[in-house]
Design goal:
binds copper (II) ion; two-stranded antiparallel ribbon; 10 strands; alpha+beta; 5 helices
Amino acid sequence: MKKVILFFVTIFLISCQTAVVEKVDTNGEPEGPHTSAEWKIWAYSTAAPSFIAADCTVVDVDGTVLREGTNGWTAMAANPRGPADPENGWADPHEAMPMVGDAQSMKWAMAYMSGQTPELDHDGYSYMLHGDMGEDNTKHFILNKEDAAEGQWIESGAHIMLFPKDPASLDGFTTDFNSGGPYVMFKGTGYDHLMIPVEGYYDYQEKK
Ligand SMILES: [Cu+2]
């Protein structure tokens, strides 16, 4: 009898362990190299909630469409530094700084990357639930913490971004990224946008 009980206890423990392992592993991350289309589609699209990620277009860094979407949202990696280890791809989704944006926010991003002033038809929104690798909140295109203005470096966790058609519409919002509430990034640069922190925003940099 003892042996039988021991047998069942053992089986129970083993199944518990399997359950725990599965919970940790199943974030939906595909097996295989991070340079694969499958991994990139997962990493970039999951910067948005699952119900948007499921049907969005996914574009690679070189412009290749990895997956054609149907819902008007586009996912792409937005880290201009590229992967620290190009041969093996992004270490994790956070390093890729993926954003999933609507048409207006993609317009904004294209203007930003080519040094042009964004001209939007209306406000745009983007999701960046994997955060980014850090920005100087007062100035765009600062890639290193050492080059940032004193106390202005912010490595963001999960957030949503509002790209305004009219930057002046953000007047009145704080520029303090430690407020916990929405704040303006790149104020007065023409690339002003509203950062909306959500759960996990301070995972990479402690809230002061
Ligand atoms: Cu962002």
